[in-house]
C-alpha cells in the first residue's frame, strides 16, 4: 500500500473517532446527571453533536491546508503566492 492510502485511512479513522467520542460522551454525561430532566439531556446531546461537527470542520481545514502546502512545494511557488489576473 502507498502512503496516500495510509493517510486516507488515518483521516477516516480520525473522522470516525472525532464524531463518535463527543456524542457518546454527551450521552453518558447527560444520562448520568440528567435522569429526571430529558430536555436537558437532549440539549447536552445536541452540544455533543455540535462539538463533533466542530472537530470534523477542524480536521478538514487542517487536511486542506496540508494538501495546499504539499501542492505548493511540488509546483515550487512561494507560500504567499497567489495568481492575479491583470
Explain this structure.
With 86 residues, the chain is mainly α. The protein has a domain at 16-75. The chain is built from two helices and no strands. The protein has helices at residues 3-33, 38-75. Helix 1 runs antiparallel to helix 2. The longest helix has 38 residues, at 38-75. The protein is elongated. The model has no long low-confidence stretch (mean pLDDT 82).
Task: Tell me how many strands there are.
Answer: 0
Morphology: elongated
Judged by helices, strands and strand pairing, the structural class is: mainly alpha
Low-confidence stretches: none
User: Averaged pLDDT, please?
Assistant: 82
Largest sheet, if any?
A: none
Specify the helix fraction band: over 70%
Whole-angstrom Rg = 20 Å
Sketch the topology as an H/E string, one letter per element.
Answer: HH
Amino acid at each position: 500500500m502507498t502512503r496516500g492510502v495510509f493517510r486516507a485511512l488515518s483521516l477516516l479513522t480520525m473522522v470516525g473517532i472525532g464524531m463518535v467520542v463527543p456524542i457518546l460522551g454527551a450521552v453518558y454525561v447527560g444520562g448520568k446527571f440528567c435522569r429526571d430532566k430529558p430536555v436537558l439531556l437532549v440539549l447536552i446531546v445536541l452540544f455533543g453533536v455540535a462539538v463533533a461537527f466542530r472537530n470534523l470542520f477542524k480536521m478538514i481545514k487542517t487536511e486542506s491546508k496540508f494538501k495546499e502546502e504539499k501542492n505548493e512545494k511540488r509546483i515550487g511557488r512561494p507560500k504567499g503566492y497567489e495568481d492575479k489576473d491583470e
